[in-house]
Batch of 2 targets.
Target 1
Amino acid sequence: MNTSPRSKIPKGVPTFLPAAADQKRALEGALFSIFADRGYREVIPPTFEYLDVLAPGLDADLIEKSYKVVDRATGRILVLRPDATAQIARMVGMGMLESALPIRLHYSVNVFRYEPEHAGRDREIFQIGVELIGARGPAADAEPIILAAECLRRLGVTQFTIAVGHGGFFQGLLRRAGLSDSLRRGLREAAARKDLGKMDALLTTAGVRGSNAKALLALPTLVGGQEVLEAAGRLAPRSEDCRRSLGQLRELWQRVSAAGMSEHLLLDMGEVRRMEYYTGLVFDVYAEGIGGEIGGGGRYDHLIGRFGREIPATGFAFDLDCLLQLSAAAPRIVEPGSRAADDGRRLRVAGRR
């Protein structure tokens, strides 16, 4: 017979007591000020939407992890917000396409995703971020990365790394190997975890050998400075898609360096976002003392087109809980506070954007 006490609140749902709530609002205010100075305007999306409307912007596994209820008024299925970027893409695609471009939006929202209790991840994740919509080219690709670095510096966080990759390069290698969609998804998931054993097993099962297999397995190991671009170029010397991706990474490095932030930049050719809607440059942000990424983002040029006219876009989001932990260690911006939850404060792996 199970005699353990019943939990008073669900696992993975945070509680902010007064001191922690004050800290959260102060941090949001500090970042909102930076966003506003750069021309970003706040949007507040609804907490839940109709699943059939939002579903075109969501990956199948994210729909599986979503919390769903029946709308008592219509009988349609409602979904609690599982992803902020897809929701803002829906808002733009269905209501802002007549606005002058580019559109700069910022937000602070909570997203809800089911995670097993043993997974060590929260089910309610607080995110704060920006979306740059209707702009393409090197300057647009660099803007979210430079802005993310500026935010961390303004919070007093100095030890952080922004790992940048390019989904187009990885997709180019997958196309050259002639793989099915399901195998491509599996390899992307494995590459995102840098699970070379899983990648090797998938390639062996698919019968991919020789230079194609060698190139894909080498990709997660190519991490470093500009020298990485030369090594990556040797993996696919005749692929126009791959050469174009490397050119964009080279241009990005130069622009971030010109902004005085190259010390925080890391090229990682195995940096591929799990969300299927990313199409180009992608990045994750890491900081000393946090056991996982504290945020990330990238380019998603086809997502808004699922809800209206296709226009390019890019952006990023921070995990707000991770920022609270970092700002408590660098309290010149916000007062340190404690976050109370049913099982106490703990360090967790950040949820992906």
Note: The chain is about 40% helix and 20% strand.
Target 2
Amino acid sequence: MVNAPLSEALKRLRLSGLAESLDVRLQEATANRLEHLEFLELILQDELAVRQQRLIARRTKAASFRDQKTLEDFDWDFNCSIRRKQVFDLAAGGFLRERKDVLLVGPPGTGKSHLAQAIGLQLIHAGHTVLYRSIFDTVRDFLHDEAFDGHDKVMAKYLKPDLLILDDMGMKHLPKRSGEYLFEIIMRRHELRSMMMTSNRPLEDWGKLIGDVPAATAILDRFLQHAEVIQVTGKSYRLRRQADPAKGKSKPTEK
């Protein structure tokens, strides 16, 4: 049994993971006659494991995912056009090391948002930082904070993470100056940190969506230079859910 002075010392050193497992580890050491170094290694591994779990939890919260999707939850048989290996290769993080970008394009409801968030979550578990925002939230962030002279602070938020996910491009037309904000983000992250975007509309429609054809052309020219484009086709999960509520319960709404 851990005594009070030792418990207090562990608390002051912020070794809560070690403190939680120490009683069990002491019993294990006695029962198995562990060497001192073996015992020390075990209790330090316990502390490191707890710290890693907390780091993942903090980074997941900071990512601001709309939903915590996983690749295991994805219905690979529903839309067979999606290549599982290609998605899992992205989740392995090679494109981050190469500072490449990713664009998922396809009709609404075909799983783009699910895949983007699931890849982001997998990369967090691998030690990376991620920020997820819808394109509407992104524009709103800049419009709101620019009114209070906070442009640099907001931009820093979008430049810092290893992966920036911008979701829902094409759901509706964007406010004026959206093209300026989006181009600045892409330009300043280009070849430094990776981005992932999803779009419900073909690339030729981006000029109309942004309301600025030259800006859209510049955005696509820069973004697609080192981007992997994934065409997502097939049926809509949402329409399946409406047609068969029983199946819809097993798979939440996708985008």
Note: The CA atoms of residues 131 and 243 lie 34 Å apart.
